[in-house]
Protein: 3-dehydroquinate dehydratase
Amino acid sequence: WRILVVNGPNLNMLGLREAHLYGALTLEDVEQLCRQRAEGLGASLAFMQSNHEGVLVDRIQQAREDADLVIINPAAYTHTSVAIRDALLAADKPVIEVHISNIHKREPFRHHSYVSDIAVGQVVGLGVAGYGYAIEAGVAYLNAQQQ
Ligand code: DQA
Structure:
C-alpha cells in the first residue's frame, strides 16, 4: 500500500513549540517513526509538511494518483479549512485524521474539525505515537476493504 502522511502548519516546529502539549520529538523523528512502521507493514510512505494551505491542497489532490491512504494532521487548518476538506474529498482515498494533543480538552475553537466526518477515523491525544497507530489502523482498513 502507498501511504501519504500530510502535516499542516507549525508542525515543522515540533519538539520546539509547546512541548507540554506536543512532546519533545521533532517532525524528523515522527517521519522516522512513520517510515519504520510503514516498512514493517510492507507499505511505502510519502511524508510532507507545509505551512501553506495551497501547497497542502496541491499535494492532497495528487493522492488521487499516487496514494491508497491519506493520514493527515491538518494542524490549525483542521478548524478552518474547507479547502483542505474539499481536496481530501477530491482525492477520494480513505483518510485518517491525527492530532497529537487531545483537541477536545483544549479551547472550544479546536473542538470542531472540518475533516472528522469525512475520515475513516481519528487518533487524537495520544502524542506522536498516534501517527504509528494511524498507519497500523490504515493498513488494516485497506486490507479489510480488499477482501
Ligand atoms: C494539532 C491540534 C491543532 O488544534 C493545532 O492547531 C495544531 C496541532 C495537534 O496535533 O494536536 O497545530 O493538530
The longest strand covers residues 2-7.
